[in-house]
Amino acid sequence: MERIPVIEIFGPTIQGEGMVIGQKTMFVRTAGCDYRCRWCDSSFTWDGSAKHEVEWLTPEQIWQQLKQLGDDRFGHVTISGGNPALLKGLSALVTHLKEKGVRIGLETQGSVWHDSFDDIDDLTISPKPPSSNMETNFATLDMIMDRLATHRGRVSLKVVVFNDQDFSYATYVHQRYPSVPFYVQVGNDHIHEADDVTLRLNLLQKLEWLVEQVIQSKHMNDVCVLPQLHTLLWGNRRGV
Ligand SMILES: C[S@@+](CC[C@H](N)C(=O)[O-])C[C@H]1O[C@@H](n2cnc3c(N)ncnc32)[C@H](O)[C@@H]1O
Ligand SMILES: Nc1nc2[nH]cc(C(=O)O)c2c(=O)[nH]1
Ligand code: SF4
Ligand SMILES: [Mg+2]
């Protein structure tokens, strides 16, 4: 049976980001990423610092852990990472979860296509702005968004914004794919802050700034602005 590298499984919690914000869900976080975003809040998935926590699990083993944690208190599972789209074994996991009757969300940056995207109920594509130090391959992103044009589930684009340059990038991405529901998300540049009160204050100031940018932009009349709700609630903790 196909195994995939899993770094953490947690929940039930709520989806703290993007188009299904607030949705009760479990999380399966896979290891490994093709990007190295400067501000990645999940860098332990790729920087080696948690490599001893990686377990290569079969879909059934993942399901057993989900059941152990969530029992009958969940009906939705979000797969994130790292970049889950890198994993050949993702298809088997998605098929298994569907057989169990749960709805599936997936978070990826849109750098590679995976056939299992077709079977995801809530698919978030999150291209990375200049502050990440990553460069978007728009030929690849075009191909992905093209294939998703006939997707049966919910698809959205979500760009994290830290500064003016990122906001310009977000505007560009929205204009390039105008028919795709578009979200801008507050960037957390205090990912090591341990004091939740300090962090909240900082994030709310950033949110206010981002809302103002959207209000003032004639190109952003049909976008949603969101914070990371889980960070506002629970700070920089892992597994929430
Ligand atoms: C950790 S990533 C994993 C999935 C995939 N690699 C991606 O980037 O979309 C999940 C989401 O967290 C966002 N994210 C990562 N670091 C962040 C930060 N410091 N502030 C706000 N959002 C962040 C990413 O942009 C992405 O939308
Ligand atoms: N509650 C909660 N919501 C999230 N949405 C996206 C997350 C991620 O790290 O991919 C995430 C996460 O780590 N926790
Ligand atoms: S693409 Fe996602 S997981 Fe990878 S480094 Fe960037 S934010 Fe982190
Ligand atoms: Mg996160």
From TrEMBL:
Cofactor annotation: S-adenosyl-L-methionine; [4Fe-4S] cluster; Mg(2+)
Protein name: 7-carboxy-7-deazaguanine synthase
General function of this protein: Catalyzes the complex heterocyclic radical-mediated conversion of 6-carboxy-5,6,7,8-tetrahydropterin (CPH4) to 7-carboxy-7-deazaguanine (CDG), a step common to the biosynthetic pathways of all 7-deazapurine-containing compounds.
NCBIfam families for the chain: Bsubt_queE
Family: Belongs to the radical SAM superfamily. 7-carboxy-7-deazaguanine synthase family.
Residues holding S-adenosyl-L-methionine: W39, C40, D41, G82, S126, P127, K128
Radical SAM core domain: residues covered: 20-236
Keyword vocabulary terms for this entry: 4Fe-4S, Iron, Iron-sulfur, Lyase, Magnesium, Metal-binding, Queuosine biosynthesis, S-adenosyl-L-methionine
Cofactor: record remark: Binds 1 S-adenosyl-L-methionine per subunit.
Pfam families from the UniProt entry: Radical_SAM (PF04055)
Gene Ontology molecular-function annotations: 4 iron, 4 sulfur cluster binding; carbon-nitrogen lyase activity; magnesium ion binding; S-adenosyl-L-methionine binding
Binding partners and assembly: Homodimer.
Entry's Gene Ontology BP terms: tRNA queuosine(34) biosynthetic process
Pathway annotation from the record: Purine metabolism; 7-cyano-7-deazaguanine biosynthesis
Residues annotated for substrate binding in this entry: I14, Q15, G16, R29, S80
